[in-house]
């Protein structure tokens, strides 16, 4: 699951949505706003990185570096 900060364009409040897909490419989504209590347009403000995900990404990048080292030598 990825957490996203959404800003409701109707009330201007930001809140966090957890979804399993990538919202970054969408820019704007039509979604239920818990403050307006209705469906409104939301701006995707940013993605919240989880500590666990960062650790995994770190492992992947170090693996890639090792591979590069093998190829170059
Ligand atoms: Zn709202």
SS class: alpha+beta
Query: How far apart, in Å, are the first and last alpha carbons?
Result: 39 Å
Summarize the main sheet. 4 strands, antiparallel
Task: List the uncertain runs.
Answer: none
Question: Can you describe what's shown?
Answer:
There is one protein chain. This protein has 73 residues and is α+β, with helices and mostly antiparallel strands. It has one domain. It has one helix at 51-72; strands at 2-8, 14-19, 28-33, 38-48. The protein has a 4-stranded antiparallel sheet, with no helix packed on it. 7% of the residues are buried.
Key structural traits:
73 residues, alpha+beta, four-stranded antiparallel β-sheet, 4 strands, binds zinc ion
Helix and strand arrangement:
Blueprint: E1 2-8, E2 14-19, E3 28-33, E4 38-48, H1 51-72
The chain binds zinc ion.
Zinc ion (ZN) is lined by residues 8, 10-11, 13, 33, 35-36, 40.
Write a concise synopsis of the structure shown.
The chain has 73 residues and is α+β, with helices and mostly antiparallel strands. The chain has one helix spanning 51-72, and strands at 2-8, 14-19, 28-33, 38-48.
